[in-house]
Amino acid sequence: MEEEYEVPSPHEHALEEASEKKNNGLAQKIALMTAVLATIGALISYQSGSAQNEAMFLKNQSILKQAEASDQWAFYQAKSMKGHLDEVVAVLSSTPEITTRFLADKEKKEKEKAEIQAEAQKLQAESRKLGEESEAKLKPHERLALALTFIQIAIALAAITVLTKKRWLLWGSVASAAIGIITATTAFF
Q: According to a count of CB atoms within 10 Å of the terminal CB, is the N or C end of the chain lower?
């Protein structure tokens, strides 16, 4: 029983060792890059969530102001209806005292209606302003979410690079990371 053993030459052994060192060095660099990208991704995610939360808060405030304005308009309608009823009673009344009293009530309600209308318009303007602020706060969130997507793609490509040892994937990872970082940087401009 003769067994064959292959004895590598010192040259083959040296080439194999150099290849392992080269691949381990690449893996370490990619691991470091991935850790940095993950940290940047976490910061972008935080900023994106913060912008989104602020936009939602402003939108909720806008909705509350709009509800208050609607209440004021309903109050305005009620005062208007009462004023019309006072006018009808004054016209149909046969005694001058009742006519005078209901016409005075109608005038009082007209003044109140003007105040209520002004308040309702003010609340609507505040609601509109808060809605616009909410939209402005949401724009950075959209850009930051896009930036985070590019960072995640970069991390995935880096992991694939380590597994396949295809260096061209590393350049794709770097390009995706650069696009993500630039997109995040320009989100607030």
A: N
Give residue-wise pLDDT tens across range 151-161: 999 999 999 99
Tens-digit pLDDT profile for residues 80-97: 898 888 888 888 888 888
**Rounded Cα gap, residues 11 and 189, in angstroms:** 58
Query: Residue 8: which H helix or E strand, with range?
Result: none
Residue 54 — φ and ψ, nearest 5°? -65, -40
Q: How far apart are the first and last CA of the chain?
A: 78
94 secondary structure, DSSP code = S
Q: What is the DSSP letter of 187?
A: G
Site of tokens 């995610």: 45
- Between CA 139 and CA 52 the distance in angstroms is 9
pTM of the model: 0.70
Strand ranges, E, within the chain: none
Tokens 């991935």 correspond to: 34
12-32 burial, b for 16+ CB within 10 Å, e for fewer?
eeeeeeeeeeeeeeeeeebee
Nearest residue to 119 via CA among 61, 70, 71, 72: 72
Q: Please, are residues 105 and 118 in contact by the beta-carbon 8 Å criterion?
A: no
